[in-house]
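seq as requested:
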Amino acid sequence: MRISLSVIFATLLLSTTNVMAQKKLFTLEDLNYGGNNYHNMVPENRYTAWWGDELIRTEYDHCSLVDKQNGTERPLFDLVELNEWAGTVDSTRIRHFYYATFPYADEPLVLLSSKQERLLVNWETKRCVWRQSRQVNGLCETSEDWNSQSRCVAFVANHNLYVTDAEGRLHQVSRDGSRELVYGQSVHRDEFGIEKGTFWSSDGSKLAFYRMDQSMVTDYPQVDIDHRIASYEPDKYPMAGETSHKVTVGVFDVATDRVVYLDAGDPTDRYFTNIQWSPDGSTLYMFELNRDQNDCRLTAYDAVSGKKKGELYRETSDKYVEPLHPITFLPWDSKKFILQSQRDGYNHLYLYNTDGKLLKQLTKGEWVVMELMGFNEKRKSAIILSNEEHPIQANFHEVSVSNGKRTLIDDGEGYHRGELSKSGRYVYDVSSAPTRPRNIDIINIEGGKAKRTAYLRAADPWKDYEVPTYESGTIKAADGQTDLYYRMVKPIHFDPTKKYPTIVYVYGGPHAHNVDASWHYGSRGWETYMATKGYLLFILDNRGSENRGRDFEQVTFRRLGQEEMADQMKGVDYLRSLPYVDADRMGVHGWSFGGFMTITLMVNHPEVFKVGVAGGPVIDWKWYEVMYGERYMDTPQTNPEGYEQTSLIPRAKDLKGKLQIITGYNDATVVPQHCLSFIAACIQAGTQPDFFVYPGEPHNMRGHQSTHLHERISDYFDDYLRGKE
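struct tokens:
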């Protein structure tokens, strides 16, 4: 009897121990950015800002000075102290320090903003030294752009552009602004690297700005349902091959209240982008493209008269030229600048003088300069981020401007990003690697050899959870030569003797990639969630995606979706070769360009893909906007065969599997006409897609609605792909 009781007790103890040691399973509330527990599932991070060459940690309720030699911190001030020094009241109170900046390297001043005002506070003297109302004459600032030298701020209110100077005087730059005449905001639908519409000269005395006349552009009939009777809220949307807007560039002189417009000629069917001031503020530079986007010119204009001074550079192509970066002047030589171009097949740096003479090509090779971070003036070098070390990595290099010599300054692994200090002596380096959640280092590049100080080594926030296996490798593209990188996420408790339902997640379009050498190879949280449910996920960066060079990207020209599909099917061939992939249970999912690819794959290969979920899909490129659509497809008038071949409308009859289409009801990027037209074609053809709409939402779902969206996507695959296990 004693032996039997001992055995029972030992069995119960072992069972209890196993339960206690059992790891947790993820939910969408853990893994989706809109989820209630998502903030606990991301690796620890730091909010920081450079104060000259000093690093300040800017957390919610305090700011600290970081010792760059050992990573320790010394408190500077907290929220209670700061608001006491500034004399704020409840309506002007500073609520947090996340967006605090330190604009003057030699002065202990922090720039902060509330809804009512912006202010500069000296933390050594413990007083506010300057403040500026953000609601002058009752106008509320939007699209604000503050200059640290003049302390002027440009902003848009009631469709017009204004400037408030350092003394609080209001200057009205435009008076005829409207929904059709847009001032001081991003133009050309944020293409060509455009992110804003105002550009201060370095001393803040002059402001360049965009003026966009879109009165001739057709309205797309968006509807707002949040009223007793739904209201009409049209959006100016120039579709491929249709009439586009006209953009001009003005210059406002704060001292004289005078506006001149650059004498660039007729703006019809032209694009103006990547505006840059000369260091002395006398000249304005910008890239100009024709509507075909195959003729790009760098031009210079006199900032006082607006007259054209000359053309410094021209690049043409039989496909397209895509300027994404303004020229960047050397801080030690105002007569020389760096220009970025893919003209040798990869994005590289070229050194020019202001006469337009090419002095040298600074970087060269079958790799891409991903970002010009800035300069180290003392060492006369540029700091770049590139994938020279490996096609799916991003690493920092120092480049000598005199001889082009490159020196790796990070650890040579993983995927890095960061920010330079004012002098360029220090790099704030944030990185991750496939098995490393997040490292933050402070790199000192002085003396020719980089010295790294560890500031943060983030712990794995998933250590208590069941985590799938993440792998990466290459397959050959459909051309039989090009290497394509993939990510595979294997189910938890993976058993190579079993067969698993498999989902291909796809994007595939320009200016994006899915696979890189960051944590878990860049895997999305939804992939992990599906892997916990027993799915295998496969993600492939096909030709046409970014960071692999001009020819890799431009192979899709005039026939979007075709080469991408061929490459994705090579991925399918690879999956079919794996004994643990259930080729009879294969699905596909993607959003935007990925939604287009999802339906493209389903109607062209119904024998392969049994289930698909297409979010915000492009259905026919003639309904997409001018700048993006015509760059990659030309116009419907000049490329009718390409538009016909890539349109999904005629392929509605070929839908065989289960397809769910999801869209935001107020999507201004891929307008609802796409989804609705495809559904109408399916009705005529007798095919049966499912359709779900998010009222009031744009191209991507916001907040917790994203969790709802991914629950819906997951349930659809559970219902129609997983089957009985």
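The longest strand covers residues 581-591.
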